[in-house]
Amino acid sequence: MEFLSTILPIKRTFKSEVCFTKKELYFTLCKFIFVFAIFFTVNSCNSDEFNTTKDGIKYKYTVKNEDGKKAQVSDIVQINLKYYNQKDSLIFNSLDISTNFRIKIKKNKKSLFDRALLQLFTGEKAIFWINAENFYIETQKKQVPDFIKKDEDLKFEIALNEIISPEIIEKEKAEKSEKLKQEEQTKLEEYISINEIEEKPTKTGLFIIKNKQGTGKKTQIGDTAVVHYNAFFITGEIFDSSIERDEPFIFVIGKNEVIPAWEEAILTMKVGDKITLISPSSQAYGEQGYGKTIPPFSTLVFEIKLLKLR
After folding, report:
1. Is 290 part of the annotated catalytic residue set?
2. Is 302 a catalytic residue?
3. For the domain with range 52-164, which CATH number is right: 3.20.20.80, 3.40.50.1010, 3.10.50.40, 3.30.70.20?
4. Is the whole model's pTM more than 0.85, yes or no?
5. Given the residues 59, 136, 229, 232, the one annotated as active site
6. Sequence-distant contacts of 140-143: CB under 8 A, at least 24 apart
7. Among this protein's residues, is 146 annotated catalytic?
């Protein structure tokens, strides 16, 4: 009996330890499967192996998000973009320009960069290898820089953050236009005050100041006017001058050959008159501006002398 009393507790302990070991093994196996799944997922994104699209672009996802929205042709997308040469030297980083870097995906099947963007869903990041000549010629529409070989592949790191809806674009455009319009009005009021201009604006907002009274014929619609002029921004910077070109400007009154401000102002003049015309953008080049010369919402100042009528 004494022998049994010493052996039985050992059997009970052994049985308990065996049961505990099975539980521990079960939980350990579950943890292993979970860790393996995470490792496989991360490894699949960070693998050194690249896939190839049907367009021949080598790519590798670093972040996948197939629950996101897929980019389409003509979408305006907000992205983070970096690209490097084959020596891994950084050429461009969009974050150096803006955290709100946007581009429009063009309908250009030859542009491999645009084709690469079409691979992405919002929230995804990927690495693409794209031929340098294709990128500069087909995407950027310019020559390959001298420091880059035409036949080398550039490495692009692209993160698709957001696809900007047309509604957001229109809203932002309207807000920007309103802001620029208010800024223009403020600058105009300051200009009128600083220069102590007492003339009242016309119904269209023009300020027409007579500097010299002529004695010649009064203008009429249909007349051909020959004038000399200087054109300034409201800051005083000159951007055009027929005097500097030594070439009078000629136009037919009433034929919309000049901006509305000129059409209105010229009809107040006689041959020999010299005026200063202050024109808000609404009567000049408006919210579009004029090429690279005149920005949107620019109030302009003109000195005009009517030389003769034909």
Report:
1. no
2. yes
3. 3.10.50.40
4. no
5. 229
6. none
7. no
